[in-house]
Design a protein that fits this description.
Largest sheet: 6 strands, antiparallel
Shape: globular
Order of helices and strands: HEHEEEEHEEEHHEEEHEEH
Number of domains: 2
Radius of gyration: 21 Å
Keywords: Membrane, Transmembrane, Transmembrane helix
Number of helices: 7
Number of strands: 13
Helix content: 25-40%
Length: about 260
């Protein structure tokens, strides 16, 4: 009996350590908000606070009416670090952001729609024996690499890349884009049109210090938005960073800004 209780305690303790506990997520601020911030950015639209019980770090996020996002990270010893970002970009603003850093910009590659045909697999055989859909064909035309070995690309249909940006780097190219897709064989009803964000660091040859600086900045940006669903892998010279199963528009805007920050360096 004592042994059984001990095992249960160990299991519960391990679960607590592994899980991020959501403390609060509502329109009521989780922490006091300075009146000056409200005057500058409007009322608090949403707020959340999460704590990593294994490290004691707490992340508090406040989203204001004008799209400003303030993220405060507080470690177990009470040390705090605050970052402020604008998290709203309309399509024209995203295009202008790409132009501001002289990046190549493509608004859409592929096809994505809603409705009864949203989960149709549109891949068709080509003359070389491979199967391609609208995304594959468009990407091929624009020399855009599609990481079809990733699960979300393999098992996604009705696929499209939106707001594709690419800029030259000392090591090769850096790309960023939003990936929108449907899950194959899923019902047309429900939340089956998730958005993900992708960074692609393509290295022509030897990695340079700029590659290390870019990947560090990208990882920091992902960490700052509190996204934990991240898949990094290498293939064909490409280092792919696949972010999230359903990334919010606010987070997507911040990740594009991270791309622009790298491009300016």
């Amino acid at each position: 009996m004592i042994i059984m209780i001990g095992i249960i305690i160990v299991i519960v303790a391990a679960s607590i350590i592994a899980v991020w506990a959501v403390i609060h997520n509502s329109g009521e601020p989780v922490v006091p908000v300075d009146d000056q911030l409200i005057q500058e950015h409007g009322k608090v639209k949403s707020s959340s606070s999460t704590q990593d019980l294994s490290t004691g770090e707490t992340i508090t996020t406040l989203t204001f009416q004008d799209g400003t996002i303030i993220v405060t990270r507080t470690t177990a010893d009470g040390t705090s670090n605050t970052t402020t970002s604008r998290g709203t970009l309309d399509p024209d603003a995203i295009r202008r952001l790409a132009q501001s850093v002289r990046a190549e910009y493509l608004s859409r590659l592929g096809r994505h729609s809603y409705g009864s045909d949203a989960h149709e697999d549109t891949r068709r055989p080509t003359f070389d024996g491979t199967y391609r859909d609208a995304l594959d064909q468009a990407a091929h035309s624009h020399n855009v690499y599609v990481p079809n070995d990733l699960p979300k690309f393999q098992f996604g249909v009705n696929r499209a890349i939106d707001d594709y940006m690419r800029v030259g780097r000392s090591y090769g190219t850096l790309s960023a884009y939003t990936y929108q897709y449907s899950e194959r064989l899923e019902s047309s009803f429900g939340n089956n049109h998730p958005k993900s964000f992708v960074f692609d660091l393509y290295c022509f040859g030897t990695m340079t210090p700029q590659w290390n600086a870019d990947i560090t900045s990208i990882r920091d940006a992902i960490h700052n938005i509190g996204e934990h669903s991240v898949d990094e892998r290498d293939g064909n010279g490409h280092h792919i960073v696949f972010v999230g199963d359903d990334v919010s528009d606010t987070s997507i805007a911040l990740l594009y800004q991270a791309f622009a920050a790298c491009a300016q360096e």
